[in-house]
Specification:
Elements (H helix, E strand, L loop, with lengths): L1 E5 L9 E7 L6 E2 L4 E6 L4 E5 L4 E6 L6 E3 L3 E6 L37 H5 L3 H10 L17 H10 L28 H16 L2 E9 L1 H18 L6 H14 L5 E4 L2 E4 L5 E7 L2 E3 L2 E2 L7 H16 L13 E5 L18 E5 L3 E7 L2 E15 L5 H16 L2 H5 L2
Parallel strand pairs: 12-15, 15-16
Antiparallel strand pairs: 1-8, 2-4, 2-7, 3-6, 4-5, 6-8, 9-18, 10-11, 12-13, 12-14, 16-18, 17-18
Helix pairs in contact: 6-7, 6-8
Length: about 400
């Protein structure tokens, strides 16, 4: 008796996906709800779990193939007993000297980055390793026969145990140029990110306004209450919740920043779904904190933390990223001092946070050292005037430099 594995519904307006990585092969045993394949869509990468337990008898689509929603991509025999796949042929090891210790399995001991080890990785894993310039030897594989999976890579990145490869100063003499480069197809998600960003530049009358904020008050409040906050709410008190709350207050005062253009109409949103841009192994994703104005600081922190974990593990869903009205992007976590973020259509504005840096500033006629952060608001000038953009940033600056304004709704 067979169970067909079909491409599931992927959300509104999404009709096809690309096979990213097969986690199981023909002859492998799978358990119910165990992930067997990764699909890449226009918006997110997602895992497809097996609905039954059994043995995979057929794989109809290979990695890189485009498949439509509802298409059969694999079959599972739910009555079969697992039959091990025939062992892969291995090259005979060179004879060792009589006094030498027995050599280990050449597959298991292949040096990091060797052709043998790279050949055991799926294209998706090799691409991810190349993007982060990671050493395979620093990542423990949990797949079949110790193979490194995409989950192993993302877990190692999140835990900070993955080591990067040092770039060679020059290529060895006589090595062909082709060996010094690698060409990999852009993922579907990366293609769509590129298209959307370019479309935003071509469509919107995009402009960026800057300001700076003294973070001392927020840092003092956070330092004073973080232990009590964590003890009561079982959640860390970060900076992002302050920015989300300050942004909501500014959005309420300047509703055009929370609006969007639809045809010849301006749609004003009386709700506040704040997108928080986070970096995932497959690219930048923007999960949305729904109705953020109704959430407490603790609820906001928990929502952002959970999205960060899901992004790290590649488990962000389409529902997580839909319905945003305004986006906050924090380039400061990567050390960015100043940047001009690009709009996240159809939204009309995006706020860029940056690195907190000790700088000399004039305060009450004296030069003092303060923890300063640059803020950048990129906006669609078709709907948001310069005065509104400047006022928005000034309101955020006031709330962050005096957090009591947030609590008192001032």
């Amino acid at each position: 008796m067979y169970e067909e594995i079909k491409v599931p519904s992927l959300g509104e307006s999404i009709t096809e996906a690309t096979i990213g990585n097969w986690m199981k092969q023909v002859g492998d045993t799978v358990n119910e709800d165990e992930p067997i394949v990764e699909l890449e869509t226009d918006k997110v990468a997602m895992e497809v779990n097996s609905p039954v337990s059994g043995v995979i008898t057929e794989i109809a689509s290979q990695e890189g193939d485009t498949v439509e929603v509802g298409a059969t991509i694999a079959k599972i025999d739910i009555s079969a007993v697992a039959t091990p796949r025939p062992p892969q042929p291995r090259a005979a090891p060179a004879p060792a000297p009589a006094a030498a210790a027995p050599t280990a399995d050449p597959v298991a001991t292949a040096p990091a980055g060797s052709p043998e080890e790279l050949s055991r990785m799926s294209p998706a894993v090799r691409k991810l390793m190349a993007e982060y310039n990671l050493s395979p030897g620093s990542i423990k594989g949990t797949g079949k026969d110790g193979r490194i999976t995409k989950g192993d890579v993302t877990a190692a990145i999140g835990a900070g145990t993955a080591q990067t490869l040092s770039a060679p100063s020059s290529a060895p003499f006589g090595v062909p140029q082709a060996k010094r480069e690698e060409r990999v197809p852009m993922s579907r998600l990366r293609k769509v990110i590129a298209q959307r960003l370019k479309s935003a530049q071509n469509t919107a009358a995009m402009l960026t306004t800057y300001n700076e904020v003294d973070m001392k008050a927020v840092m003092t409040t956070r330092s004073q209450y973080k232990e009590l906050f964590e003890k009561k709410h079982n959640s860390r008190l970060g900076f992002m919740s302050f920015f989300v709350k300050a942004a909501i207050m500014a959005l309420k005062e300047i509703p055009a920043v929370n609006a969007e253009i639809e045809g010849d109409e301006i749609v004003y949103k009386n709700y506040y779904n704040i997108g928080v841009a986070v970096s995932a192994p497959s690219g930048l994703v923007v999960p949305v904190v729904k109705d953020a104005d109704q959430l407490s600081f603790a609820d906001t922190e928990n929502a952002i933390f959970n999205y960060g974990m899901k992004a790290r593990d590649g488990k962000i869903s389409l529902d997580d990223m839909q319905g945003g009205t305004f986006t906050i992007s924090n380039g400061g976590v990567f050390g960015s001092l100043l940047s001009s973020p690009i709009l996240n259509p159809p939204q009309s504005a995006i706020l860029g946070m940056h690195k907190i840096q000790q700088r000399p500033v004039a305060l009450n006629g004296e030069v003092v050292i303060r923890p300063m952060m640059y803020l950048a608001l990129s906006y669609d000038h078709r709907i948001i005037d310069g005065k509104e953009a400047v006022t928005f940033l000034v309101r955020m600056k006031e709330c962050l430099e005096d957090p009591n304004r947030i609590l008192l709704d001032l």
